[in-house]
Recover the amino acids of this structure.
């Protein structure tokens, strides 16, 4: 349906012919809209961008947890970068 919309069919025409609500078709079109082209000429849709933002937040949280763990382990004299910390 996104291809048909991009070829000129209106949301109303698509709704009348295929059945999904106008709002649903609009949401699909918005999610599929290309918002950027990366350095490798790969299109990034709005939905993909949202997923990348979500993954980026998760990875930052994980990195923060790991950084805190390293500090705690170093303070307790546990192995640090493959070597035992000297007391």
């Amino acid at each position: 349906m996104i291809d048909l919309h991009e070829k000129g069919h209106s949301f109303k025409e698509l709704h009348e012919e295929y059945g999904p609500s106008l709002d649903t078709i609009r949401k699909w079109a918005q999610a599929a809209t290309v918002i950027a082209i990366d350095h490798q000429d790969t299109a990034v849709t709005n939905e993909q961008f949202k997923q990348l933002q979500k993954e980026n937040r998760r990875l930052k949280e994980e990195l923060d947890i790991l950084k805190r763990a390293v500090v705690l382990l170093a303070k307790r004299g546990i192995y640090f970068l493959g070597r035992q910390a000297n007391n």
In short: The mean pLDDT is 82. The two ends are 67 Å apart (CA to CA).
